[in-house]
Amino acid sequence: MDIRKNFSKRLKELRLDNNLTQVQLGEKTGISQTSLAKWENAERSPSIEYVAQLALFFNCTIEYLIGLSD
């Protein structure tokens, strides 16, 4: 199981399902567009604080966001 790839896929899916660009998501969460792009491309992994922040923003569990649940 590749948690980084699962996270990148779920993050992009959630962002697109909410009709948000990376810039718009960044403005709403305070996360830079550069960081979001790197996470969506599985180039880097976010800290647990950012994972939790995104889970709260998208109203999902951390487990869902990292691909451990459906």
Overview of this structure, please?
- This protein is mainly α and 70 residues long.
- The protein has a single domain (3-65), classed as lambda repressor-like DNA-binding domains (434 Repressor (Amino-terminal Domain), Orthogonal Bundle).
- The protein is built from 5 helices and no strands.
- The two termini are 14 Å apart.
- The model has no long low-confidence stretch (mean pLDDT 96).
Tell me the count of domains.
1
State the CATH class: Mainly Alpha
Assigned CATH architecture: Orthogonal Bundle
CATH topology: 434 Repressor (Amino-terminal Domain)
Helix content: 55-70%
Terminal CA distance:
14 Å
Proportion of strand residues: under 5%
Secondary-structure map:
Elements: H1 3-17, H2 22-29, H3 33-40, H4 48-58, H5 62-65
Features:
mainly alpha, 434 Repressor (Amino-terminal Domain), 0% strand, globular, 70 residues
Task: Give the gist of this structure.
With 70 residues, this protein is mainly α.
